[in-house]
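note to self: dont lose this again. the chain is below, predicted strucutre after it. 183 aa total, dont forget to put it in the shared folder this time
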Amino acid sequence: MPIRPATAAELPALQDIERAAGEAFRALGMDAVADDEPPTVAELERFRRAGGAWVAADGTGAPLAYLLSEPLDEPTVTATASRCEHIEQITVHPRAARRGIGRALIDHLADRTLARGGTALTLTTFADVPWNAPYYARIGFRPLTEAELTPALRKIRAHEAELGLDRWPRLCMRRALTPRTAP
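---
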């Protein structure tokens, strides 16, 4: 599955992917999440211009999934500098779910982050949604304690709370990066 930078022309398609994937939250009683508008084209363009908008495409080149990320540089609790890439959003269209596409996007980002000297990926997610925190734990992310949250992660969580996402349990997770070896 080709993974490549998103183009400006396909940003509306990313919004469509977000809307379609959001419908799954209705089955969990999270209608407010399902009804939430996707990022605006301007927001998506900001990530794209910064090099943080990736798509996994089908055989025709059309996006099936996307990932948005941005650097998160700051000291860790041990006060040593750590360069993390924060996953702002990762969404797979329901018709392409359960094929490893989300993991492929995350692994792609991990490889790029390692190549630039990064040490970890971070994200925030719903604790009890099966395709959120439990899934991320299976692919190497671990929950962060309150004491491990950096100022930047605290700021992200505060913004999420302002948006009402704390109506459901949320947490920050981190995946340490190490070079993968070929099979």
